[in-house]
Structures are given as C-alpha cells and as structure tokens.
Design goal:
Layout (H helix, E strand, L loop, with lengths): L7 E5 L5 E8 L4 E10 L4 E6 L2 E6 L9 E5 L3 E10 L4 E10 L10 E12 L43 E2 L3 E3 L5 E9 L4 E12 L2 E6 L2 E5 L9 E6 L3 E10 L3 E10 L8 E12 L26 H10 L4 H21 L15 H8 L15 E3 L4
Antiparallel strand pairs: 1-2, 2-3, 3-4, 4-5, 6-7, 7-8, 8-9, 10-19, 11-12, 12-13, 13-14, 14-15, 16-17, 16-20, 17-18, 18-19
Amino acid sequence: LPSLPDEITCYMSPNQSEVSCCVEVDILKRHLQTIFTLDTCTYKLTVRIENLHHEINLFNYQWGKTENVKLHGVVQLRFIVYNIPSERKFLVDASIRLCFEAKDNTCLKEYTILNNAEFMYAKCYDSVTVPFGGLAFEFWKPSQCTDYIGNFLNGCTDVPAPVSYLPGCKMSSDCHSVECCTEINFMTGTRNVYTTYELTQCDEMMTSIERQSWTKTGLDSLTGSTISEKVNDVFDMSMAVVESSSTLYKVTLSVKICHLSGATCTNMTLAEEVTLKKTDCLPERKKRKKRDALHGYGLDPSDLQGGFRNLYNDLASSEQVQQFLKEAKDYENQVRSGNLEPSQLMDDDITTGIKSTMRALGQNSPTTMSSLWTVDIVSDADG
C-alpha cells in the first residue's frame, strides 16, 4: 500500500483479495469505513462504503474501466481493475474522495489507497458453490470476443459451403480454420464464448476454447471417428472426421455446454460437414510471418490497450512493441503541449498509462509469449 496521511488507515487482507480503509472526516466529525473485495470464487467485485453495498459481476466485466461508487455523492471510491489471468492476479488502482461541493466535481480530499496493487486469485475449495463447478477463473479470456456478422466462407473460395453453420462462425480466408464467437446465457451471466478449430500442419488439428487449447495429430487415421476434449463438466468440444483426402478434410464441429441459465446443458453444432484445406506437410510447422514494421497495423497511439491487444494477437516483435510505445509517448507529449502543460515523459512514468498497462498485461504482453494453464482437462482421444 502507498504511504498515507495520519487521518486514513488501510489494511490489506493476508490472502491479498481485500483492502479496508478507515478515514477521518473532520467536517462530519466521524470516521468512515470503505472495503474493496475481489473474489474469483464467487466471480464478484464488492465495494462497501459504510452501509452502501455495491456488487459487480466479474464474469462479463470490462477490465480497465474507471468505476466510481458514491455514497450520497460525498464519499467516493474510484478504482480501475486490470485482469492478468496468466499470473492469476489483478492490478488495482483506487482512491477515496471526499466531495462536499455540489458543482464542478470539486473534492475536498483525495487519497490514493492503491497504486498497481496486486490482488491474487482466490483458492476455491468448494466446487458446489463456486460458479461452473470450480472452473478456474483464468480459463476465461480477459476480454470477450466480438460477434462475427458476415458470410461464413469469409473469402475462402476453394471449398464448398458447409451443410449448416451457427451465426457468429466463420472460416479463415485460407480455408484452414473455423472460429466462432457465440453468445451463451450461463447461470452466472451472459458472455460471448470464443472457440477455434485450426489445421496447423498436415494432419494436425489445434482446437481451443477461450484460453485453453489442445493439439491432435493423426487425423487421417480418425476418419469416421469423433475427437472430444472436455473442460471440467462445463464444455465438451468435439470434431467428427467425416472424410479425408490428400488435400481436404470434411468435419463436423460441435460443442456441448452446461451450467446454463435454468441449470441445463445444450448441444450446439457450430459447422456441419465443413471442408478444410490441408496445409503443406513440412518437417517443421510454418511460422507465422511477422510484419516488418508497424505500417499496416492501423494502431491508434491514443488507444494504448487496444494497440497492445492487436500487437499481441499478431505476435508482434519486441521492436514493433517499442516502436508503438514511442509513438504513444510522442502522442502524450503532443497532447500535453496542446494543453500548454509541457512535461517530459520519463521511463518510470506511470501516470500516463504506458507502464501501468504493460504491467497489467503481464505475461499477455506482446514481449512475453509464455502461458499458464490450470484447468483440469479430460480427453476422450489419444494425441
């Protein structure tokens, strides 16, 4: 916790999931209590200001958003939360504000109580009460996918259209993969779920759902069979290999989803008898060609998080990341100059968001490509 003046005292819980503060308010002649809690076992973010209780569902929360919880407009708890699933933690900035003026959003006092503070994911032991039967919170992608609206073939002209497909699904333009973004109404809340099926090399298929992925080889020998991958008792992804040739696979892709609203399960056929082109059978997997420069990315230096997300998804090099950081800093300097507030951005600057965002990305940063899986997987096929 940062250094605080004498009139406010804060305490972080031993498991690093809650901070409580007591602040003395001279005008009111009393002390006020605030409590901020992040609980991945219940998927809840809770803010308490005296008797005010404010709860946010983390399942479909927009990370990096500034929130402001108010008690009669006088006592305010303002905070921003970044989710880092690869490190099973959150980074939190928070401040308590005492505001007694009715105009101009003027506040008498403001105390920074958290500055890039680490809140750790909770250890959940009761799979009955935890959402999704104890499915690890880091299984979910930090941001939801965007629903696709358009033609399924999506520029792929070498194969016929499937017998049927689910809205929100599309094929890659090279005809090697299918990805889907599907809105699902779970008991915990509504969320877009991201799934992919990709032929990565010869007879090798990589499947994924949210942040979990698997690789299966030997598809030629599985013609007429079904491959299945499970995530706890929540998801069951399957691929039926209908037929194969030297250049093509025809498969049916489906997923069974449980823990839905109404405590039910459903079977969804994402694409029925979709034809995928085989990639070249090379000794080593083809590596994605990285772009030589930022030209073509279309990155907006004023949108720091969006830029990092695009760089990460495109497997950008560290040089490209540093170039984008330079452009973002140049943009910040231009804004400051335009506001007649000249100042030099130092390498250790955290107020403009660059260092804070890089830390918030953690191992999801474009400069770090490692990953961490803690989801228990049950597979019905060898691979």
